[in-house]
Design a protein that fits this description.
The complex is a heterotrimer of chains A (100), B (166) and C (625). Chain B has 166 residues and is an all-alpha fold. Chain B contains six helices and no strands. The chains are: A mainly alpha (100), B mainly alpha (166), C mainly alpha (625).
């Protein structure tokens, strides 16, 4: 096992933990934080591969992912605030209007 | 050898903080666990020869984004979380999710162990902020501008969404 | 030039648009005068075109504004034609139309749908102009259909009463039956000549002549079926008496002066074709004459003031059609012209009477029933005078317009066909009889109801058009004095026909018959008791119901149709088609009931399946590729 494999495995562990957070938590804010964790896990893999292949593109990509994540957080939190205003709740299970 | 100890410690800390996020009953604690995770991530970046990203990670993620999160949590008064309780018809959600997670990890482990690559590249690339800046403004000018536009759109969107419509 | 040719058509459309778009905010007066001025302007434009045609000695003005259909051999354009024939028709349509518009301002006063009425009226004038100005059969057909549509809209104008709505529907459907014939005729024309332009068709008719005899017979027969619908001939005349359900000025405009003349106009336009088909011509003449007699005898026992005039219109149309069948198109058109004057006059005068009878809203007595009238001559002197002028013209008393035109037709019948002459002669006598009866019942004697006793003259906006039409009726005969008058001369570029000189004996005989018949009518109906006793005997009811032709249609065509419809509705539609559609619906619902279980509505649940899919893809990439 080399360092890159280790870091990539670490990245996948973090990713799965984030995914479980998204799937199992009910608070919109926590789900959102879990999404950030998943993004971060992906970033970690990028950086690991960038080091492995001695190439800067991976790092540049991470830079872009971070920017997009920042934009996403701004909009996502605005959505949560808006939903909270009408529903008085941050529980995503309360938003089940699409139930068939 | 020291590298491995450092990496192992950092990895353990990272996973522990992620689990803390997953399991905590208080949103503020969860947010602080996430901050810890980001900081550990920044240290790993330094180890992996990405100092610029480490700094950005601290300032943007651990700084700006997490401050925003905590701000919203406090604004909404949503720090106390009700215990997870599946609504009727969703009882399979938790076991299935965990099983899928384990499956995904096993596949990842199998791929890395069975088909893992050779030792790392010998020479390290120059990853100073200068080099990244040169890359950004030479090869990635167009995506860079697009991202600028995206940020603007997100800003406007956030303003519009949170405006009270009377 | 194009604009001048189109302007008679564009003015009513403009008036229509103004009223339709802005009428909501305009007062009654503004709406009425907008519509009227539009038609007056159209009349002025028609006069200008008339003068133009006159200056160029009858040369036709042809304008094509745009191609319409270009498909293979079929090449139809929006072509317009102004020649002596259409320019005369334009003058009638816009002139009489304008007077009726003005009259309507008074008649429709206070109606809830005043604006809509004038929009329809403008549309009607525009459609009729399209019909007479068309330069090919297809554009003519568009006008033809639009006229039918307008008549439907206007007959059923007071649709709150189901009876009126049914009358409008009947007019539409009966006209449609005739239109089928007309459309087939147009198709056959195209199949034969390869074009629908008047110029092309008639040039070929002249060139090929007798070779076309057989197909011309078929074409003219089909065209004549179209004419029987629009011009209310046997067997399709049943819609016109019912059409009296519309407002009276509408009856005057559509069912006396213009729309019903469309069939006569069309036959005159296509006279070259009819000339090649002697058999059709004979049929046309006999149908026309028979219609004239049937309708005139029916008019004799009507009690509704407008129904009498309606049957009278059918009867006079019979005269025109018979004349066309005899090949004397100029006489036919001359009668069309004078009839437009005196029948519009009669209808509008009758409208004035109804208006006066209506004045007292408290009683629910029928304001159109002549049994409730009587003694109106003293109370409504102007209306009486104008009605009398119209009535005498209809009866054929010289020197009124009707005398000359009717005499010309009778003369032609006398020289060509004894049977037609006999029928038309009897009709002429009956005509004087029923109009004499009507004048006696409405205007003479003592009032037979409170409304009649309290009736008073209509406002000037109604009486002025009446007087104008009365003047036209008085002098209108002058445009075609016997022995080749002005109209003969004017139409010569289109219709070449030698005029006959006045037959003094015939004229005197028919004048005598008319006067005697009027006198008999007056003598019979001095006594109101006689009216009350009327309508008891079987033959009187037979006449009152117009020879029971309507009942015949009900018993045969309609019953059969209802039977077929019932079978279709209950067995085929409800039993097979609806059942199939419902089964599809039920199946979809059942399937949805199963599938909807997947939609839990929980975002996390959707996410779980997304995760499942992602892992499945990962497994595929790792192990199966």
């Amino acid at each position: 096992m080399d360092a890159t494999s280790f870091v990539v495995f670490l990245s996948s562990v973090l990713f799965v933990i984030g995914a479980l957070g998204v799937l199992l938590r009910r608070n919109a804010l926590l789900i959102f934080m879990s999404v950030e964790l998943m993004l971060n896990a992906a970033n970690l893999a990028f950086v690991a591969f960038a080091q492995r292949w001695a190439h800067l593109t991976g790092q540049v990509f991470v830079f872009f992912v971070m920017t997009v994540a920042a934009a996403e957080v701004a909009v996502g939190l605005a959505l949560i605030v808006t939903i909270f205003r009408t529903k008085r709740s941050t529980n995503v299970d309360d938003l089940a209007q699409l139930r068939g | 050898m020291t590298d491995w100890i450092v990496l192992g410690l950092l990895g353990a800390l990272s996973v522990a903080s992620a689990l803390g996020l997953l399991l905590s009953r208080n949103a503020i604690y969860a947010a602080l666990f996430l901050v810890l995770n980001f900081v550990v991530g920044a240290v790993i970046y330094i180890v992996l020869n990405a100092p610029f990203l480490a700094v950005v990670q601290i300032s943007v993620y651990a700084g700006a984004i997490m401050v925003l999160f905590i701000f919203v949590i406090m604004l909404l008064g949503a720090e106390r979380l009700t215990p997870a309780e599946n609504p009727p018809g969703l009882s399979y959600q938790r076991p299935l999710a965990i099983a899928l997670g384990v499956l995904a990890l096993s596949v990842a482990a199998y791929v890395l162990l069975a088909r893992g690559g050779e030792a790392a590249a010998t020479q390290a690339v120059d990853a100073s902020p200068t080099a990244i800046g040169v890359q950004l403004f030479r090869n990635y000018v167009f995506p860079f501008e697009v991202v600028a536009l995206l940020l603007l759109a997100a800003m406007v969107g956030a303003v519009v969404l949170t405006r009270r419509t009377e | 030039m194009e604009l001048l040719v189109l302007s008679p058509l564009l003015f009513p459309l403009l008036g229509l648009l103004i009223n339709a778009l802005f009428g909501q905010r305009m007062g009654e007066r503004a709406i009425g005068w907008t519509a009227s001025l539009a038609v007056i302007a159209s009349f002025v434009a028609a006069v200008a075109l008339f003068a133009q045609v006159g200056q160029s000695h009858g040369a036709a003005i042809r304008v094509s504004i745009a191609p319409w259909i270009a498909a293979g051999a079929l090449n139809v354009s929006w072509g317009f034609l102004v020649d002596p024939l259409s320019s005369v028709m334009m003058l009638i349509v816009t002139g009489v139309g304008a007077l009726i518009h003005i009259y309507s301002i008074g008649y429709m006063h206070g109606d809830a749908r005043f604006r809509r009425y004038f929009v329809y009226l403008n549309l009607f004038v525009a459609s009729m102009l399209l019909l007479v100005m068309a330069d090919n059969f297809l554009v003519l057909f568009v006008g033809w259909e639009l006229v039918g549509l307008c008549s439907y809209l206007l007959i059923g104008f007071w649709f709150e009463d189901l009876k009126n709505a049914a009358a409008g529907r009947k007019a539409f459907i009966v006209n449609r039956i005739g239109d089928v014939g007309f459309v087939l005729g147009i198709l056959l024309i195209f199949a034969t000549f390869g074009t629908l332009d008047f110029e092309g068709v008639f040039a070929q008719v002249k060139e090929r002549g007798e070779a076309l005899a057989a197909v011309a017979g078929a074409i003219t027969l089909l065209l004549f079926i179209g004419a029987t619908g629009k011009s209310a001939q046997i067997p399709l005349f049943v819609w016109l008496p019912d059409a009296m359900a519309g407002p009276t000025p509408v009856s005057a405009l559509i069912h006396a002066a213009t729309m019903v003349t469309a069939g006569v106009y069309m036959m005159s336009r296509a006279h070259a074709l009819f000339g090649l088909a002697p058999a059709t011509q004979t049929l046309v003449a006999i149908v026309g004459a028979a219609t004239a007699l049937v309708a005139a005898s029916s008019a004799l026992r009507q009690m509704d003031i407008k129904k009498v005039l309606a049957y009278s219109t059918v009867s006079q149309l019979g005269f025109m059609v018979a004349a066309a069948g005899l090949g004397v198109y100029v006489a036919s058109l001359f009668h069309l012209l004078t009839h437009a004057f005196f029948k519009a006059l009669l209808f509008l005068s009758a409208g004035s009477v109804i208006h006066a009878m209506h004045a007292d809203h408290h009683s629910n007595l029928d304001p159109q029933d002549m049994r409730n009238m009587g003694g109106l001559a003293r109370r409504m002197p102007i209306t009486f005078a104008t009605f009398a002028v119209g009535g005498l013209a209809l009866a054929g008393v010289p020197p009124l317009a009707g005398f000359f035109s009717k005499d010309e037709i009778l003369l032609a019948a006398f020289s060509y066909s004894p049977l037609v002459f006999l029928l038309l002669g009897a009709t002429a006598a009956l005509t004087a009889l029923y109009i004499g009866r009507q004048i006696a019942l409405v205007f003479f004697g003592e009032p037979r109801s409170v409304n009649a006793a309290h009736a008073h003259e209509s406002p000037a906006v109604m009486t002025v058009p009446l007087v104008a039409l009365a003047v036209l009726t008085l002098v209108g005969g002058a445009i075609n004095l016997p022995g080749g008058g002005w109209l003969h001369h004017w139409l010569e570029p289109v219709i070449k026909e030698t005029a006959k000189p006045l037959n003094v004996v015939l004229a005197l005989v028919f004048t005598g018959i008319a006067v005697v018949a009027l006198a008999i009518a007056w003598w019979l109906y001095r006594d109101p008791q006689r009216v009350r006793a009327e309508g008891r005997s079987a033959w009187e009811r037979f006449l009152a119901e117009a020879w029971r032709i309507d009942a015949l249609y009900h018993a045969t065509v309609l019953r059969m149709f209802y039977t077929i419809s019932t079978v279709c509705a209950q067995l085929i539609d409800a039993g097979a088609i609806d059942a199939a559609v419902n089964a599809v619906g039920r199946g979809a619902r059942a399937a949805a009931g199963v599938a909807r279980a997947a939609q839990t509505g929980f975002v996390r649940n959707y996410g779980l399946f997304m995760f499942l899919g992602a892992i499945a893809m990962m497994l595929y990439l790792v192990f199966l590729r």
